Amino acid sequence: MARPEQVLLLEPQHELRFRGPFTDVVTTTLKLANPTDRNVCFKVKTTAPRRYCVRPNSGVIDPGTSIIVSVMLQPFDYDPNEKSKHKFMVQSLLAPADMTDTEGVWKDAKPEDLMDSKLRCVFDMPAENEKTHEMESNKISASISKSESSTLSMKSLVSLDDGEVKKIMEECKRLQTEVQRLREENKQIREDDGLRMRKSTVMSAPHSSSAVRVKEEGLSTRVIALIVLFFVVGVIVGKLAL
pLDDT tens digits, the chain, 242 residues: what are they? Predict the structure, then answer.
């Protein structure tokens, strides 16, 4: 007696494709859909059980629902000249209304109640130029993501409202005016001290020189501090402009 036609809808229908490289676990998926109005028991079997890990490999699919089966191929040395002979089979049967134990259902099932579908395995190894292009694309994507992340972080760090920006601009103008004023005062002090030094006697010359140096050092320190502060504020304003 011929077996009944498979009631489950398989996607893909005829083959499971695994894309290399195969130096690590490669996973593909199989979708099982139950279009009937009854529960359907299923099992997934393979001709190479040591080479694959299937989750879930059995279960019950409710009416009008579907399930995704993950098929994981274990790492192996790929030989392009060797064709894959691995196959999978999806077995199913309509669950009885009073089912309580799925294992018992499979044991009591008659051969004419079982339905099955077979799929072959296909191994795809990308070409060298395709792998190179894929690696470069991944690097470019990672670089773009990193750049966007850095830009967002910088904007969040320097995000200021219009009032704060206006205050910074006014402070820059004030600092610039202050630096110019200090430069003019420093220049005037040097000219005045030069005149006093020429008029002073030889005895008072060392004392006068020391006082001038102390005053100049004090002014130079203030000028340097203000220039540094002006530079820092300028950097912040430059980032805001970007």
Answer: 567 899 999 999 999 999 999 999 999 999 999 999 999 999 999 999 999 999 999 999 999 999 999 999 999 999 888 888 999 999 999 999 888 888 999 999 999 999 999 999 999 988 754 444 455 555 565 665 565 555 544 554 445 556 666 777 777 777 778 778 877 877 777 777 767 766 665 455 455 455 545 455 555 666 676 776 777 667 675 656 55
Q: Is 4 within 8 Å of 94 (Cβ atoms)?
A: no
Question: What residues form DSSP beta bridges with 19?
Answer: 124
Residue 84: CB atoms within 10 Å = 15
Cα torsion for 9, 11, 12, 14, to the nearest 10°?
-10
pTM beyond 0.85: no
Q: Distance (Å, rounded) from C-alpha 56 to C-alpha 180?
A: 79
- Largest CA-CA distance found in the chain, in angstroms, rounded: 134
Least Cα distance to 223 among 170, 180, 164, 188 occurs for 180
Question: Rounded to whole angstroms, how far apart are CA atoms 119 and 89?
Answer: 6
Pairing of strands 115-124, 15-19: parallel
